[in-house]
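Intended use. Records like the one below are meant for learning the mapping from a protein sequence to its folded structure. Do not use them to infer anything beyond what is encoded.
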Amino acid sequence: MAEARAGLPEGRYGRDPSADARTDRRLRATGLVLLAVLLAFVGWAGWSYISGQPVTGELTGFDVVSDAEIDVNLQVRKPSDTDGVCTVRAQAEDGLEVGRADFRFDDDTDSVHRTVTLRTTGRATSAELLSCSEADGGR
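Structure written out for the chain above:
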């Protein structure tokens, strides 16, 4: 009788299992490297966004003075050699915007707490700090 072969014919039934294992290890390693690069990029982007804003502000309160004015209390943090500008808006009870203005902060301190008066076209029921940034044409 003829002798039985010990193994399968090479290349006939797919790749060698050890070659598949090497490919799996390479894919996992590549995936981990790409994941690490993605996480590093997201961390860097977040840090540069946060640290790239030298002027920040917080609305600490407001007082409706009349149908045409609202006083807004702002706390602004900025470098002492930088001028800042903050945009504030007022809204009526129905949510419509009744006033918006930019206020400049050019004090030589790094923390300013000030009450600003915003004129409105109708009675305001709320105030909102939209943004604070470095003023154009600073010192």
